[in-house]
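Summarise what follows for lecture notes:
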Amino acid sequence: ILEQIIKQLNKLIDVIKVADLAEKEYVEREMCLIKINAPVEHRAEALRIADIFRARVVDSSPRTYTFQVTGDEKKLEAFIELLRP
Protein backbone atom coordinates (compact mmCIF):
# COMPACT_ATOMS: atom_id res chain seq x y z
CA ILE A 1 0.00 0.00 0.00
CA LEU A 2 2.94 2.36 0.70
CA GLU A 3 4.17 1.87 -2.85
CA GLN A 4 0.75 2.90 -4.18
CA ILE A 5 0.73 6.01 -1.99
CA ILE A 6 4.18 7.01 -3.28
CA LYS A 7 3.05 6.56 -6.89
CA GLN A 8 -0.03 8.71 -6.28
CA LEU A 9 2.00 11.45 -4.56
CA ASN A 10 4.47 11.53 -7.45
CA LYS A 11 1.57 12.29 -9.82
CA LEU A 12 0.85 15.57 -8.05
CA ILE A 13 2.25 18.61 -9.85
CA ASP A 14 3.90 20.30 -6.84
CA VAL A 15 5.60 17.14 -5.53
CA ILE A 16 9.34 17.18 -6.31
CA LYS A 17 10.38 13.98 -4.57
CA VAL A 18 8.81 11.34 -2.34
CA ALA A 19 10.97 9.22 -0.04
CA ASP A 20 10.03 6.46 2.41
CA LEU A 21 11.82 7.29 5.68
CA ALA A 22 10.47 4.38 7.70
CA GLU A 23 13.88 2.68 7.77
CA LYS A 24 15.95 5.83 8.48
CA GLU A 25 16.23 8.35 11.29
CA TYR A 26 13.91 11.30 10.85
CA VAL A 27 12.32 14.19 12.70
CA GLU A 28 8.55 14.27 12.81
CA ARG A 29 6.48 17.39 13.41
CA GLU A 30 2.85 18.25 13.00
CA MET A 31 1.53 21.66 12.04
CA CYS A 32 -1.86 22.97 13.06
CA LEU A 33 -3.80 26.10 12.12
CA ILE A 34 -6.25 27.11 14.83
CA LYS A 35 -8.80 29.89 14.51
CA ILE A 36 -10.35 31.15 17.73
CA ASN A 37 -12.86 33.76 18.75
CA ALA A 38 -10.87 36.39 20.60
CA PRO A 39 -12.99 39.17 22.05
CA VAL A 40 -11.11 42.14 23.46
CA GLU A 41 -11.16 40.82 27.03
CA HIS A 42 -9.47 37.51 26.00
CA ARG A 43 -6.96 38.69 23.38
CA ALA A 44 -4.02 39.26 25.74
CA GLU A 45 -4.46 35.83 27.35
CA ALA A 46 -4.62 34.12 23.93
CA LEU A 47 -1.39 35.84 22.88
CA ARG A 48 0.29 34.87 26.17
CA ILE A 49 -0.63 31.20 25.62
CA ALA A 50 0.56 31.41 22.00
CA ASP A 51 3.90 32.83 23.15
CA ILE A 52 4.41 29.97 25.62
CA PHE A 53 3.85 27.43 22.81
CA ARG A 54 5.82 29.48 20.25
CA ALA A 55 2.75 29.72 18.06
CA ARG A 56 2.58 32.43 15.41
CA VAL A 57 -0.37 34.66 14.64
CA VAL A 58 -0.93 34.15 10.91
CA ASP A 59 -4.18 36.12 10.71
CA SER A 60 -6.20 38.37 12.95
CA SER A 61 -9.40 40.35 12.84
CA PRO A 62 -11.13 42.48 15.45
CA ARG A 63 -12.79 39.32 16.84
CA THR A 64 -10.53 36.39 15.88
CA TYR A 65 -6.96 35.09 15.81
CA THR A 66 -5.59 32.33 13.62
CA PHE A 67 -2.51 30.66 15.08
CA GLN A 68 0.04 28.35 13.48
CA VAL A 69 1.70 25.97 15.91
CA THR A 70 4.09 23.09 15.25
CA GLY A 71 5.29 20.21 17.39
CA ASP A 72 4.31 16.75 18.46
CA GLU A 73 0.72 15.66 18.99
CA LYS A 74 0.78 16.22 22.76
CA LYS A 75 2.01 19.80 22.37
CA LEU A 76 -0.71 20.62 19.86
CA GLU A 77 -3.42 19.05 22.02
CA ALA A 78 -2.21 21.00 25.08
CA PHE A 79 -2.25 24.26 23.11
CA ILE A 80 -5.78 23.61 21.84
CA GLU A 81 -6.99 22.68 25.32
CA LEU A 82 -5.65 25.90 26.86
CA LEU A 83 -7.37 27.98 24.18
CA ARG A 84 -10.77 26.39 24.78
CA PRO A 85 -13.33 28.75 26.38
